[in-house]
Amino acid sequence: MAIPTLDPNAPDFTRRCLNLADPRLGAKALVASDEFFAPKERMLDPQPAVFIPGKYDDHGKWMDGWETRRKRTTGQDSCVVKLARRGTIEGVDIDTSHFTGNFPPAASIEACASTSELPPDDATWHMLVPPTALQGNQHHYLAIGGSDTFTHIRITLFPDGGVARLRIYGRPALEDALASSSGDSLVDLAAAENGAHVVCANNQHFGLASNMLMPGRGANMGDGWETRRRREPGNDWAIVALARPGVIRKIEVDTAFFKGNYPDRCSLQAANVTGGTDESLVTQAMFWPVLLPEQSLQMDNRHFYEREIAAIGAVTHVRFNIFPDGGVSRLRLWGE
Question: Domain range holding 100?
Fold first, then answer.
């Protein structure tokens, strides 16, 4: 099993915001000026880029990303990406991992808002990242300000080369999140696609806690939150900031694919938090009111709770406790 890694040097926006370019949420690489060595879709892969020595295909060395041919004329290469949700953009990561002698010397990122699948020729593009120098085999985290919302981005390489991964971190527009509920009065307040995010988790050794907030059911045991085996007293936990304040009416805890390693029990605490820092929430959360008392769990199963939920009013954050450790595929918190 591949153990996930969290970049300790990544800025705060990578943890607080949703990757709007995640294909699991519906993002698409639409068109590229060139993709001779490696296809544009590979650049959006949610998994970290890898390097496989000795792997070649019909076009040359296999690279995990988008790579264009060596340009022998003037001009630049570009790729247009449709974001998973219309939203504000707070930061980007242009990742050139494993691209050393073939990375672009510079790149820029523009954004537009369009109702078309592919923006028309007369679309108005806004420069988010002006042409910026890149280095090989490293992340380039770039913060972006502004309150405008966008649906598409365009990355331009000067003049050519390869990008392993492109992440566009932002917050989904409120109206889009509500529309995605298909008219249901209850919205999944813990859904990443609606703007929820994991504030902190005490352990993410085998699987990231943010996986619990992704759409659909888990694809396998690696597509969930899984902690190491606990060898000391206590329990594991994760704190989730909801997409917006709401009264939680229905809860689902899904242990899909977790069989010999599912938690024995779970519970939820919750609170309406204003101000403070993420660090301060870790201490506060231990004393939050109980939203869902301890419930026994079963392996590879969906667990639904309604009558068991305590009436504590509107909340902004929850602490999800698992006893004593283990793996959970998805957490759903439907509310209004």
Answer: 13-172
CA torsion, points 21, 5, 226, 25, in degrees to nearest 10?
0
- Residue finishing a domain among 172, 197, 227: 172
Distances (CA, A) of 103 to 9, 64, 136, 208: 21, 12, 6, 29
Tokens at 254, concatenated: 């899904």
pLDDT one-digit tens code per residue, 232-280:
999 999 999 999 999 999 999 999 999 999 999 999 999 999 887 878 8
R_g of the chain, CA atoms, integer Å: 21
Write the CB contacts of 286 (distance below 8 Å, at least 6 apart in sequence).
319
Pull the structure tokens for residue 181.
């509920």
b/e for 61-100, b at 16 or more Cβ within 10 A?
eebbbbbbeebeeeebbbbbbbbbbbbbbbbbbbbbbbbe
- Specify the residue for token string 């502004």: 146
Q: What is the pLDDT of residues 129-157, one digit of tens each?
A: 999 999 999 999 999 989 999 999 999 99
pLDDT above 80: residue 4: no
Q: From residue 148, give the alpha-carbon distance in Å to each of 82, 86, 113, 193.
A: 16, 10, 9, 18
| Residue 292 is assigned to a structural domain of this protein | yes
